[in-house]
């Protein structure tokens, strides 16, 4: 196995494991309700 192939596979694995680095994506309704809660003070 060539060096570049090994590097390519390592990069793919790291991308696969870091699929959701910021947690679950919020729906627009969830985001809007949080925004309203914070900015209605």
UniProtKB/TrEMBL annotation:
InterPro entries: DUF6254. It comes from the Bacteria. Residues 1-41 are annotated as: Disordered. Residues 1-12 have a biased composition (Basic and acidic residues). Residues 13-25 have a biased composition (Basic residues). This is DUF6254 family protein. It comes from Paenibacillus chondroitinus.
